[in-house]
Amino acid sequence: MDETFVIHGEWWWIAAVLRRASHDNLPRFEAVGVRDRNSRGYTATFVSDALGEIGTVVLSGDDRRTTLRVTAPDEYAEHWRGLVSTIRAFADEARETRQHFQGLTAEEVIEQYYRMKGQRSRITLNELAKRHGFNASYLRTVKSEYDRKRGRGKES
């Protein structure tokens, strides 16, 4: 197995869930070797005395998205996919809870805008700004930065 997963959520939060959920999803392991630590993630190898190496995960990200690259013997692939599914469920629940109590961030409104445009909606940025309590001019500024970071053309 050599798979990459992208999970929406801050990398350090995803790392905490990975630590907790790994015991419930992976075969029993005794050691986790952590290396390549930096401000955006780390690499961890899970080892069992009885089974040998269970797998290695490279975790990297920022305050929006986390990438997990998992390499493991094929016999543990479903365990790792189950672990990623558990992490993703916790991350989705956390995001939904934050959005319920705090509302969408400006970047999430822009993502919603592009999803709606992709569905051929006639929604405008001004309408979304009003709906979510943002100043329309501020939202256009955030959209410009969002577009620049992602290499998007000029859309409105």
Question: In CATH terms, what is the fold-level topology of the largest domain?
Answer: Double Stranded RNA Binding Domain
Helix count?
A: 5
Beta-strand content bin: 25-35%
**Low-confidence parts:** none
- Total domains: 2
CATH architecture name of the largest domain = 2-Layer Sandwich
What is the distance, rounded to the nearest whole angstrom, between the alpha carbons of the first and last residues? 42 Å
Strand order of the largest sheet: 1-5-4-3-2
Number of strands: 5
Written account of the structure:
This protein is α+β, with helices and mostly antiparallel strands and 156 residues long. It folds into 2 domains: 101 residues, Double Stranded RNA Binding Domain (2-Layer Sandwich), CATH 3.30.160; 45 residues, no CATH class. Helix content is 49%, strand content 26%. The protein has a 5-stranded antiparallel sheet with strand order 1-5-4-3-2. A hairpin with a 3-residue loop joins strand 3 and strand 4. It is elongated.
